[in-house]
User: Fold this.
Amino acid sequence: MFKITLNKKLISCFIVFFALSSCAKEGFFKTGDARKNPPDPKLRVKKNIEEGRGFRLSEAMGNRGGGNFQFASSNELWRASLDILDFMPLTSANYSGGIIITDWYSEEGNSNDSVKITIRFLSNEIRSDAVDIDVFYKNCVSISNCSISKKDGPLKKELTRKILSKATVYQKQNKDKNSKPYNNQSSPGD
Assistant:
C-alpha cells in the first residue's frame, strides 16, 4: 500500500516537473535580457512595477464582483478598429472569432456605389501584419445589375494605418494607467 502511494507521488512529481520544463522551452516563462535589467533586485522590482508588470496582493485579492469582462476593451487593436469603423453599420463583430464585418455603406448622395469592410485579427500584437483588411466595392447600374469586386487600394492602406496608430495610442494609455510609482518602504533594520 505504501509503495503504491509512493509510486503515485513520484509519477505525479515527474509529470509536474516535465510539464514545467516543457513550458520553459516553449516560452511560458519569459526570460529577460540581463543587459536591459538592473542587477539590483530592488531596482528590478521598481522597474517592473513602474511599467505595470508588477503583482500586488491587494489587487489580486480585491473584491471583483460578478466577473471581469475586460477582454474586448483591453485589446487595443479591437477597440481601435471599432472606433475607426464607428460610422459604418456592422453586420458581425465576433471578438472570439477575431473578425469584424461591416454592412454595405454608401454616402448619402451616391447610392450606386457601396463599400463593405472585413477585418480579421491575426495577432493581438500591434504590427502591420496583425490585421487583415478586405475592402469590397459594389457598383450598381440598376437594382438588379450590380458588380462586386475586392480591391487593395488606398482605403485599405489608410484603414490599416489609422487602426495601428489608434491602437498604439490606446496601448500607451493603458501602459500609463497601469504604471504605478514604486514606494520602497524598507523596514528600519535595512
User: Anything to note?
Assistant: The mean pLDDT is 77. The first strand starts at residue 90 and ends at 94.
